[in-house]
């Protein structure tokens, strides 16, 4: 015969101080767990949201990222005459040779400097990225040492406002516009003319080539043609696929989430266990009475497990609510591929909140198990004589 649930509920209310301490402790553990996961999820979402499925990105074979790739001007001239390429209304091949560079800029809050990424693009670069929209000012003019920066970078770095200047090598670049990347990796970049960027930083080569084939069939043919041409020594893949792989930055954060989550969950388990042991000690006669009334040891164990899980679930829900205001909060971290600052948003999703509650219930079950077994094993006569 199982104990009624209202018995557990009344016990929680009667011992409200111990209940509150347990719920708050678990809530803090769950909040940290959810926020660290939301941090990693935000970085992954930034990469996954980048790129156009129609585009193909070309880098040097053996390179894992644009920052470590070198593509020659001869490669660019060769690829732009491939018949598989799409052409715009003016009959121009939709292809852009690009160079990725790192510059140091002062943080707006005065906390020092950080690396930020400048992408040099050729005229078709903007056309290849319809998700990027100009918000204020205008696009840069080639040869004028002008740059357009993302709105989110402008909020984090000094000199990135329209009319401000960015020091790039020996040159000063004038900010002439702000753009919005719609939550993509482009929100962590500033754009300028590719050939001007090469000239300023004294680079003979580009970092990558972005192009658009005529259709899906032409895309497959083009990828195979580039991959199989040993003279080129280039690697081609879908732009979306490339960026979806660029989640290395999230890996250390996931590891940190696992380590902190494990350490804090052990502490939470002991806290829940301590609370439940105290509950057993204060309810010894009550437990003996339940046994005399005919409730089995299994019913007593189940009673304490339900009570511990209920408290933990309350803590889990509270922890998720504490983490929820951070959803959408924009911040930045170091990209371990380019060592430039990556801007992203916390993403506290329903899935993460469900994971947080499940995590808290697991803590409650583990913390309640031993006290529940101890309660069930109490001798009935000794329990009834207890003060």
* Structural domains: how many: 2
Q: Which geometry do the CA atoms define? A: elongated
Portion in beta strands? 15-25%
Number of strands: 12
Mean pLDDT: 82
Structural class determined from secondary elements: alpha+beta
Distance between the termini: 27 Å
What is the C-alpha radius of gyration, as a whole number of Å?
30 Å
Helix count, per DSSP? Answer: 12
Low-pLDDT stretches are none
Largest sheet: 10 strands, mixed
| Helix-strand topology string | HHEHEEEEHEEEHEHEHHHHEEHH
Percent of residues in helices comes to 40-55%
How would you describe what is shown here?
With 387 residues, the chain is α+β, with helices and mostly antiparallel strands. The chain has two domains: 5-48 and 248-385, no CATH class; 62-232, no CATH class. The protein is 48% helix and 19% strand. The chain contains twelve helices and twelve strands. The strands form two sheets. Strands 1, 2, 3, 4, 5, 6, 7, 8, 9 and 10 form a ten-stranded mixed beta sheet that branches. A two-stranded antiparallel sheet has the order 11-12. The longest helix is centred in the first third of the chain and has 33 residues, at 16-48. The mean pLDDT is 82.
What characteristics describe this protein?
alpha+beta, 12 strands, two-stranded antiparallel sheet, 387 residues, 2 domains, ten-stranded mixed sheet, 12 helices
Draw up the topology in text.
Blueprint: H1 5-14, H2 16-48, E1 56-60, H3 73-79, E2 95-106, E3 113-121, E4 133-137, E5 146-150, H4 151-156, E6 165-168, E7 171-180, E8 189-193, H5 194-200, E9 208-211, H6 216-228, E10 234-238, H7 239-245, H8 250-282, H9 284-292, H10 297-323, E11 330-334, E12 341-345, H11 350-377, H12 380-385
Parallel strand pairs: 3-8, 5-7
Antiparallel strand pairs: 1-9, 1-10, 2-3, 2-9, 4-7, 5-8, 6-7, 11-12
